Structures are given as C-alpha cells and as structure tokens.
Amino acid sequence: MNAQRSRAASWADMARQFARRQVVPPDQLTAASMTATISLRSFDSFAKMAPLFEQLEGWADNPTLSPIWLTALEEAGCATAEQGWIPHHLALYEGSGDAAKLLGAAPCYLKLNSEGEFIFDWGIARAAPKFGVEYYPKLLFAVPFTPATGPRLLLARGAEPMMARAAFAAAIDSLVDRLEISSAHVLFLPGADARSIAQHGLMHRHSVQFHWNNRGFHTFDDFLKSMPSKRRTQIRREMRAPSEQGLTLETISGEALDASMADVAYDLYLTTVDKFTWGRRYLNRSFFEIVTSKMRDRIELVAAKRGKKIVAGAINLRGDSTLYGRYWGAHEEVPFLHFNVCFYHSIERCIRDGISTFEPGAGGEHKIARGFQPTLTHSVHRFRDPRLSVVVADFFARERDALEAELASMV
Fold first, then answer.
1. Nearest alpha-carbon partner for 127 in 400, 398, 402, 387
2. Domain count of the chain?
3. Does residue 339 share a domain with residue 265?
4. Which of 81, 145, 190, 316 is deepest in the core (most CB within 10 A)?
5. Can you give 216-247 as a three-state secondary structure string?
6. What is residue 370's three-state secondary structure?
7. What is the predicted pLDDT for the residue at 92?
C-alpha cells in the first residue's frame, strides 16, 4: 500500500509540473492535413479548468459533464491520486501565447489502475508485460465512475469540429509519447466523434448498452403497444406489484432534495455496492452531499416508500433530452421493485416530459424485455508499443465481430 501511495504521489507531482507550463511546444503539435499550430495546457484539478466551461458547448444538457459534478468527484476525494485518478485535464488552443484561441477542453486523468471505467481492459493490462510494457499509468479521457455517453472533447463556441478533433487526436499521440506511458483511452463518446477521431490513427472499440428511445410515444400505453403481447402482459403484471406490496413510488427533485436526501442517496448506493463481490465504494457521502445540494435542477431520486419510509430508490440525472439512470439501492428485497423504480417509473416520466432517450446504465440483457434496445457505445484508443498495438487491434476486430453476431441474435 505504501509503495502504491508513493507511486501515485510521484505521478501526481509530474502532473503538477506539466500543469505549470505549456505541455507541448507549439512547433511539435501540428495535426495532419492542418496548417494551424496547436498548443496544449493541462490542469491538475478540475476546479482550475472549470472557468473555461463558460466558453464551451456540449455539456449543458449532460449533467455528468457539469463542472459541479466533475469538481465534486475531486473535492470529495473520489477521483484523486490516492484512488488512482491523477487529474490532468486538457485545453487545446489554436496558436500560442496571448493570441491563442481556445479550441476545446477535455476532462482527463493519468490512471494508475482500471477501476471505475466500465470499458474493460484488464486483459490488455495482463498482456502488456509480455511485451515489456508497464501498462500503468495510462491516459484516460472519461467521467470517473460514469458509463454515460457524452462528448469528451468539449468544443469552444465557434471552433471548427473537424479541425478540433484532428488536433485532439494529435494531442493524444503527442502526450502518450512525451509522457512515455503505455496508452490513451477515450471512453463513452458519441459514435460520430469516435469515427472522426479514429480517422487520425486511433483504434475504434465498440461495446453495448441497453437504452430506451421514445419512438413517438404519447402515453405509456403507446409504448406497451409497441411490444409483443406476452411482454405487455408481463410488464403490466410487474407494474401492479408495488401497490399489492403496500409501496408507493414518487420522484423527489428540486427543493425537496434537502440535506437529508444526501444520506438517503448514499445509504441506497451502499446497499448495492456492498452486496456484490465486484462492488466498490467509489463514491462517498461528501460527494452525494455536494451534488444533491448544488445540482437540484438536474438530480432526482425515484423513491419507493412504505408509508413515509424510503425502502428503495434510484438516483437519476436529468438532461433536457436524455435521462441518465445512475445508482439503485434497496433496503428490502421485493419482487419486481427494481424494474418499477429503475425502468417503468422513469419511462413514464420520459414520455410525459418529452425526453427522447433514457440511458439506465451499464449491462443487463434483461432490459430488452422491458422495452430497452441494444445500443452500441464507442471508445477510441492509442497504444505506444507497436507490438502491443497490433495484438490489441486484432482483439478489437474479433471482439467487434462477436458483438455484431450477439446483437443480431437479440433482434
């Protein structure tokens, strides 16, 4: 443990040194087919980069990219060097010096492990030493502990997207080489962004989640009519269960998210992460206290109550067009309660409020029977060692073929 802390401290010190200057000299970072010179600045905390968000687009509708959310992860001690997350947030500029023009910015970390990422690379990490490669630290562009799709390079207003993404790809290449680290990984970015960045030499990897999309539904019955008769019957039976069990469901949001709700949300979170062997206490009470107090317009708790007592619930993050399901927990094991709290209640809310997409989180083929559709998610990767790169490219290709076959069988 002491050796791990010493190593984390060493890399954190390196990150701080890089944050004190332009990381890449302007004449060393010019994206292919571009005439513009690109410079790069890093920040050793998100709080220091957050003021740039006033100039950026693409985050206001995605609460996981809110400066409050990202800052809270660090200030609460969840995404820190001690936990394997060394903040190394990046801003890209066209030109250098006082005349430099902001192109975009990206939440970024030097990562000392693969915990809390949800695009799994444990096999690659085990294979890397066979090529003489020390896999950690690696460079990670992601929202910690959050498998939700969103832009990873947030563009400055007026920036040309193709140019900015080409510069982003060039910056990734340069940083991997200059930091002499094994690799860089950009997780859960939109498909169009992934394809654009991959054109500049990064590997494109596919994964799958199960999302709900509003295909013109005006009522929950419209949604049910889109499904086979057997599934409709099953869902109606499951939706009757809470009232038969003496439970009521409600959404708690806005001013109703008082200080007590931080304790409720954290306790529910612990019931799930402590229940399973793979569970990890990535988040703490301080994090829930910060976000429930500062993001009341974007956070909601779907609560199952027995009388006045909350016995189960799910934390959702609400965007203008997308609802993100995050943390489920229950103090009682009640049949079908998970489906009602995490799926049906929120689908009804999406239909009522005109929300087009519901991302309930990672995993779960059981979601298909509840109206969710298999949906590709995207990441891009760059490996410095050419031998490891060839092996990983082959693995990604075989993985993609297997995934396509799996998705075809689900239709």
1. 387
2. 2
3. yes
4. 316
5. CCCCHHHHHHCCCHHHHHHHHHHHHHHHHCCC
6. helix
7. 95
**Is 197 found in the same domain as 258?**
no
Q: Assess whether pLDDT exceeds 70 at residue 25.
A: no
Give the global pTM.
0.92
The C-alpha atoms of residue 100 and residue 103 are separated, in whole angstroms, by 9
Same domain, 259 and 348: yes
Summarised one tens digit per residue, pLDDT across range 175-191 is: 999 999 999 999 999 99
Please provide the average confidence, as pLDDT, over all residues in the chain: 91
Return the bridge partners of 85, or none: 111
pLDDT score at 13: 65
Q: What SS3 class is residue 111?
A: strand
Q: Residue 309 and residue 318: Cα distance in Å, rounded?
A: 24
Longest dimension (CA), the chain: 69
Residue 367 included in any domain: no
Looking at residue 20, its pLDDT comes to 42
Q: Where are the beta strands (DSSP E) in 62-213?
A: 85-87, 89-94, 101-106, 109-111, 138-141, 154-155, 183-189, 203-213
CA–CA gap between residue 276 and residue 272 (Å, rounded): 7
Task: State whether 192 and 271 are in the same domain.
Answer: no
- Whether 201 and 223 map to the same domain: the answer is no
Is residue 238 assigned to a domain?
A: yes
Of the pLDDT bands very low, low, confident and very high (cuts 50, 70, 90), residue 95 is: confident
Beta bridge mates, 204 = 380
Closest alpha carbon to 348 in 266, 236, 195, 257: 236
